[in-house]
Design a protein that fits this description.
Elements (H helix, E strand, L loop, with lengths): L2 H19 L9 H11 L2 E2 L8 E3 L2 E8 L6 E6 L5 H12 L5 E8 L2 E9 H16 L10 E5 L1 H7 L1 E2 L2
Parallel strand pairs: 3-5
Antiparallel strand pairs: 1-2, 2-3, 4-7, 5-6, 6-8
Helix pairs in contact: 3-4
Length: 163
Amino acid sequence: MTTQQEWLDTFNKLQELSDQLNVGDPFNYNRGREIHTAFTLGLTVSNTLSGADAYLDGQPVELKSTIQKVIKATYNGISVQPTWEEQEDYLINDKIGKYAFHYFTRYEGSKLVEAWRMSGDDVLSILLPKLHKQYQSTVNRKDPRLSGQLTKGEITQYGVRIV
């Protein structure tokens, strides 16, 4: 068997296994790494592509991963609400704060080399000021959606390393 044929067979097998496990499409965006992260960290994989990425003891959690040399987490494509008060409520109750924990992972190829867990409250305390500042300048932007990033320093200061 050629390496190319082995890759094609593995591609098909990964989809079959994902269907059997009811974990969704492993090839959609970053879903394969979400599934890998959840299995590696002992989380339950969500079977939908919207909302929680995984669950810890039945509680929804957010998963973020990077392949960069330094751990970081990006929250992008956040819908903009009509007022900052509505935006803050959305971020707290529907988008970021609804997850008790956020997991941040760094991969080198297929290997998970670093994983951190941070409370949703800490994530909010870091991101809300950044998003508020950005919110004020969304009016004339072509894409008004918000985005924010947690740096390595913020993750290592407020998170707990688990891998």
